[in-house]
Amino acid sequence: MKSDINYRHLYYFWVVANEGGITRAAERLGLAVQTVSSQLSLLEQSLGKTLFAQQGRRLVLTEAGRLALGYADQIFLLGEQMQEALNEFDSGRTRLTVGISDSLPKLTAYRMLEAATHMERPVRLVCYEDQFEALLAELALHKLDVVLTDREVRPGATLKVFSHQLFDSAMVVVGAPALAQQYGGADDAFPQNLNGAPFLLPARNNALRGKLDEWFVQHHVRPDVVGEFEDNALLNTFGRRGLGLFFAPAALADDVAEQFGAVQVGSVPSVREQFYMISSDRKIMHPAVEAILAASRKNTPAA
Question: DSSP character for 152?
């Protein structure tokens, strides 16, 4: 179906909405105020809707304007990404922009992205770390290609995003060698030998924390919680210094031992942590995203 929308006029509308007024938009566009104003009027005529209303000296979006802005955001942000993709194509690399939840272990993030680093066409990773909700908002605006996290998007969410479980893993209790030796012992003594042991745990807003608290209660273990962390990397740093025992995915136990010098104290098979890649509803699937999903289906590391 042929569209009657003049996309140059739509772009002017988008700039006005984002700049908060015609004067500032005209300065950004390098055009006369009258030119921008007349183009907006033509756009409203072609759409048959009023997009802005005068409120004192300010222009505010109408309901129709807010609806149109949502679509314009996607159109022009995708346009910017297309230009970036074409520039990356000339460089011989494919750009993958990843949001990493601040609660996600960095070793896990590497494991999840590893398949993208072995593609025939080299990938340039651009990684940002933030809170889960903030990253989802960026993903919905197509500012990110994917989000890596330890939780899935709840069914019924208003955002059009999809959760792909890449792998899950049982947990193990680990610690610096001296601490692990102090609280280790025979397998039949675990986990009661953890009573009173210093522990470093994820913050209570972390998806894993509730499962760990429940496990402690079920096994009548009362840990001495000496630290709670939103940032998993910081938790691991304190753990490496011997301030407390901590939990790690069993699937990454060898990596944790190598990077943090952590020794396993015991296995917790009943507590499992899931790891997800969240993607948007784009029609065109990023080739690196396809590679990550294919690798996950082929060889899921579980323990």
Answer: P
Q: Which of 79, 104, 124 is the last residue of a domain?
A: 79
Taking every pair of C-alpha atoms in the chain, what is the biggest distance, in angstroms? 82
Amino acid at residue number 193: N
Distance CA 87, CA 81 (A): 10
Domain containing residue 298: CATH number? 3.40.190.290
pTM over 0.70: no
What residues make up the domain containing 35?
7-79
Strands 52-55 and 58-61: antiparallel
E strand residue ranges, the chain: 52-55, 58-61, 94-101, 123-130, 146-149, 161-175, 198-202, 224-229, 246-249, 263-280
Alpha helices in 55-96 (DSSP H): 63-91
Q: Are residues 218 and 173 located together in one domain of the fold?
A: yes
CB 85 within 8 A of CB 124: no
For 116-131, the pLDDT digits (tens) are 888 888 888 899 998 8
Residues 145 and 48 in one domain: no
Question: What are the φ/ψ torsions at residue 207 (nearest 5 degrees)?
Answer: -60, -30
Residue type, 65: G
pLDDT of residue 140: 81
At 186, which helix (H) or strand (E)? none
Cα–Cα distance measured from residue 279 to residue 282, given in angstroms and rounded to the nearest whole number: 8
